[in-house]
Amino acid sequence: MFDTMTLTKVIGALCGTLLVFLLGGWAAETIYHGGGHGEHEQAYVIPVAGGDEGEEPAEEGPAFEEFYAEASAADGESLWRACSACHQLEDGANGVGPHLYGVVGRDVASVDGFNYSGSLIAVNDVWTPEELNHFLENPRGYAPGTAMTYNGMRKIEDRANLIAYLDSLDD
């Protein structure tokens, strides 16, 4: 009953049917979503009484100052491990990055003997806790072109704890 030719025809029919469905889905997607529709301004807008008043700007989470006020230097010490791959805590001992002893409140690019990237120097003047928070969140977004390859610390609580730890080192 079944010979090799019949089995080949059945498999070919299944593959052909699958191909038709895939091409049909691709064509439908192109027609409905990619055909240039919806890329222009709406022709007529119906005014609604109070329509703009109901929209309030999205509120951001608590401010960094609140997290920093409750930050734990002891918790920040355990977060230091990620930084220790490139930075040192001893005054004057630079690693791949500059030493971080006394970094909170220190002028940017003030460590002697370390070659800073120009983009970092142009961003700010002093490493305040707020500026360190923004930098640690996304170093490349804060100072595009910086040589620092760290991807950033996502949790604001972790950043606050780490900054509190760094601030506690130099009394």
From TrEMBL:
The keyword DNA repair does not apply. The keyword Glycosyltransferase does not apply. Keywords: Electron transport, Heme, Iron, Metal-binding, Transport. Residues 71-170 form the Cytochrome c domain. One of its GO terms (molecular function) is heme binding. It comes from the Bacteria. PROSITE patterns: CYTC. InterPro entries: Cyt_c-like_dom, Cyt_c-like_dom_sf, Cyt_c_1A/1B. This is Cytochrome c family protein. The lineage of its organism: Bacteria, Pseudomonadati, Pseudomonadota, Alphaproteobacteria, Rhodobacterales.
